[in-house]
Amino acid sequence: MNQAIRFDYSNARTFVKPHEWEQLAPAIGQAHEMLHKRTGPGRDYLGWVDWPERYDRAEYERIRQAAARISSDSDVLLVIGIGGSYLGAKAVLDILGHSFYNLLPKSKRRSPEIYFVGNNISPVYISHLMDVLEGKDASINVISKSGTTTEPAIAFRLFRNWLEKKYGREKAKERIYITTDKSRGALKKLADEEGYETFVIPDDIGGRYSVLTAVGLLPIAVSGADMDALMQGAADAREQYMVMDLHENPCYQYAAIRNALYRKGKMVELLVSYEPQFRFFAEWWKQLFGESEGKDGKGIFPASAEFSADLHSLGQYIQDGMRHLFETTVSVTKPAIDMTVQGDPDDVDGLNFLTGKHMGFVNKKAFEGTVLAHVAGGVPNLLIEIPEATAYHVGGLIYFFEKACGISGYLLGVNPFDQPGVEAYKANMFALLGKPGYEEQKAELEARLRDNKTYLTVAETAAYLELPETFILEKISQGRIRAVHDGNEYLINKDQFKHHLEEMRKLREYEEAARHETIPESYDVKDED
Ligand SMILES: O=P(O)(O)OC[C@H]1O[C@](O)(CO)[C@@H](O)[C@@H]1O
Whose CA is nearest to atom 1 of ligand 1? Predict the structure, then answer.
């Protein structure tokens, strides 16, 4: 079978001249070579390229069996993970499942309730989730490649304790499933010691590319979605998007056109859908592109909107605000379910002209009208359309975006497969929390936090202190100012600075008084320590 994903960039054509487009063709060819011959930066993380063909069939079977076990002995599956360790599964579950799958009565549900946790550090969220678990049988799938990511690790501690209290340590072991590195890391070690069942996140596949591995597949299998079709859809997409020719390959066309738009100042890409079930698909896509491209001072900012809801909130900006946006709509030709608009005898809202029309049709017209308006308003529009929201087409869509992202990153000249920028906040958080080994950073960061409290800009400080012109000021970091006066250099914050000036004012008064021989008796020049 062939993937029938349609990529239409006709509503972006007026923004990109044919020669700009043509000139990208050689760069696309180069990016293709780098990806397929594994010669580009990040070449060790290209396991996803052929994964839909070469995935481990034995593990796949174990996933299916574990899912059946969880479905038979649990009312609830808790999926603990953050970023790439949960977004893909959540995206697929939402598209292929019922919009309210956790709320459906058991008789109408094909799976346990599934909740995602460990993707924040909110005590409120976690304790609310614990309320939901009361009286229910649960299993846990912890997903973390490193095994030491703070958010999931904290959640795992809590829910593991919860399970052990409920079932006892031995029985709890049968309800804990670990997806992690095949041989390294804290989770792997713990799983081996405790005898938890484990699944592998391959070494050569990064978190944001891992949805079609055990990372996504176990929760997806538990939800009852058709894993086989999902993998087949991805495998067919792999085959189709292997063609190097830009004119033949819609996946490469998407990568090329977004790059051409970026070069013209379109810095923000809004991934839009008219189906709320795609909300988390957009979240998955944001990590994929944001973490892959946003580096070295470059990259399109990936944002998302859900229409028509956001047309009533963001719509004004999109139509009329800063012209640095382009839109990519992900659309489904045929909605899984359709309904008709009902008539109203009084026609109070004046909408009787829609009576009997399908809501899918109304939604489509909302889309067409929006595209026309936004394009006229200077927002280029791209369309990626799948015929139906089935597992097969979702698998294809995932692969389409994964590959487009790799190509796009190489076009941009970055390493699309690392994420060094994520470490900055982690290091600061660990230092501030007092993690052993971070002592020096802790002192420095705490000083910065203190300084921030009295922070003024250089100009504000000068005005506030009525500085004599002989001072040369320069801001050297948040809250710190370098002042040079009479050849002396001071690194100070506002309060220290005030103190220095007060001393100088007194000194000036003293010199003045000395000239007039009227030194005040109360005057006392303090030594500075
Ligand atoms: O699976 P881990 O190691 O817990 O990491 C989770 C997420 O954290 C990151 O490493 C950085 O935020 C992502 O790339 C990854 O998806």
Answer: 144
Ligand 1 neighbour 210 (Cβ under 6 A): no
Instruction: Kindly list the structural domains of the chain, giving each domain's residue range(s) and its CATH number in brackets, ordered by start.
Output: 1-40+234-337+357-419 (3.40.50.10490), 41-225 (3.40.50.10490), 453-512 (1.10.10)
Q: pLDDT digit string (tens) for 338-379?
A: 999 999 999 999 999 999 999 999 999 999 999 999 999 999
How far is residue 195 CA from its own chain's centroid? 33
Q: Is 426 a catalytic residue?
A: yes
pTM for the model: 0.86
User: Residue 10: is the preceding peptide bond cis (ω within 30°)?
Assistant: no
Other residues' Cβ atoms within 10 Å of the Cβ of residue 346: 6
48, 80, 85: residue to mutate for ligand 1 pocket, most atoms within 8 A of CB: 85
234 in contact with ligand 1, CB cutoff 6 A? no
CA angle, 366 as apex, 361 and 372 as ends, to 5°?
125
Q: Which mutation among 82, 181, 187 tests ligand 1's pocket best, with the greatest number of atoms within 8 A of CB?
A: 82
User: Tens digits of per-residue pLDDT, 218-233?
Assistant: 999 999 999 999 999 9
| Alpha-carbon distances, residue 498 vs 184, 351, 457, 494 (angstroms) | 55, 68, 14, 6
- Angstrom distance (rounded) from CA 5 to CA 396: 8
Distance 208 CA to ligand 1 centre (A): 8
**3-class secondary-structure state, position 288:** helix
Element at 45 (helix H, strand E): none
- The ipTM is 0.97
194 is catalytic: no
Residues 234 and 396 sit within 8 Å (Cβ to Cβ): yes
- 418: CA distance to ligand 1 center in Å? 11
| Residue 340 host element (H or E) | none
